[in-house]
Amino acid sequence: MRVAIVGAGGMGSFHARSLAAMPDVEIVAVADIRLAAAQAVVDAVGGTASTDSVAVAATPGLDGLVIASPEDTHEELVHAAISQGTRIMCEKPLAVGVESCQRIVDAELSLGRRLLQLGLMRVFDPAHVQLAAEAAKLGDIHFVRCVHRNRHEQRRNAKLILNQSVVHDIHSLRWLTGREIGRVTTVVTPNPDRVEHLLLVAEFEGGGYGTVEFSEHAFAYEVTVEVDAELGGVKMAPVMRPTVRRDGGESVHIGTDWFARFEEAYRAEAALWIDSLGGPAAIGPSAWDGLVAERVVQAGLQSVHSGQPVGLSGLETPSLYRVR
Ligand code: ISE
Q1: Which of 40, 116, 156, 288 would bridge 88 by S-S if both were Cys, CB 3.0 to 4.6 A apart?
Q2: Which residue puts its alpha carbon closest to atom 7 of ligand 1?
Q3: Which atom of ligand 1 is nearest to the CA of 119?
């Protein structure tokens, strides 16, 4: 499989290394606006370094393209790859703005084929998968609580936090319940330009609530989910970590970055993608999931600014996207 990677930051270089370790995968190009970053990845995995991401995305004859560049570049890169019929693994968010996401969905709809797998990789995380399997046995889901703690140094605004981080939890809410979100209320502290904490309350179509509690500068990186359902509830299993006993104390190191926490999920996600390249169409989280999540993100943002709940009009899922 001839694969190119656009974006040589943390995520792009992680994907490049795990893909290069798979049998039958050849990394043919790595693009980044910083040539040195692209070259550093090429030095580790092979291929050619470039600063022209769009040209790399539009390379004829690729089996797959990984898009791990900043989100405002995604739309152009996705269309460049789609124009060549190239399969795509695109990091979340799909794109910024509902219209951009809609144009990507429209491009797949007019092809009549899914080419894109979206990086909403919680669905590959063993702890999430176990939780989903148990929740599915407990009847109607009434409530889902997602807690997402980051340990970021930088200060992000509400738009970036919703698009880059909370988008994962929005997908978890939809995936776990199989329901769409009909109304969103979001509050932040201390203010939308510099968020420390964000609380998003989602009301599902057909009943039930979900919450996302997000913290930007927490003590560690931590993602957990709890579900309450008709017959009981499920709490996500704690990640297995050793308890270290030393100097009269016991401690568990939780860690501060998502690569370590979700390493297995990222690898499973990439393995599924490579496997799917031998089949007729992309599987896993889709461009449609990206569009729906972006609608919730934008509604959430509107709510942050208006202080009011924001309703989302119902959408009919096109048949191309009905099987997940
Ligand atoms: C980061 O970009 C990720 O994708 C992580 O999964 C997420 O938990 C984190 O909040 C984001 O900043």
Answers
A1: 116
A2: 165
A3: 4
